[in-house]
Amino acid sequence: MKVNWGALGITIGLILVAVSILAVGLMAGRRMSRLERALKEEIAVMREGMKRAIIVQSYALSTAESKKRGVSLEDLKEGYGLARQFMEE
Fold first, then answer.
1. What pLDDT sits at residue 3?
2. How far apart are CA 8 and CA 67, in angstroms?
3. Looking at residue 88, what is its pLDDT?
4. Domain range for 76
5. Residue spans of the chain under pLDDT 50
6. How many C-beta neighbours within 10 Å does residue 6 have?
7. What DSSP string describes the chain?
8. Whole-angstrom Cα Rg for the chain
9. What is the number of structural domains in the chain?
10. Tens-place pLDDT, residues 48-59
């Protein structure tokens, strides 16, 4: 039986290319899922910080407005205490 070495070489080469493309696709998928998880965690932390800032600023501004004066450091400290209570619940 005569073997066509050219066709066999091309076939083996194509199989190796297909396997390498599959491997790269799987690695990229895993990397993307890790990045997605990290991004979701980071977004959750940022969202919590934004909620805290909104509570603090709202409290400080409303307190200052009700007393007809500017926002003071004490207003912000009380706002952080209030935000801490809300965030714990």
1. 80
2. 88
3. 82
4. 5-88
5. none
6. 8
7. ----HHHHHHHHHHHHHHHHHHHHHHHHHHHHHHHHHHHHHHHHHHHHHHHHHHHHHHHHHHHHHHTTS---HHHHHHHHHHHHHHHH-
8. 30
9. 1
10. 999 999 999 999
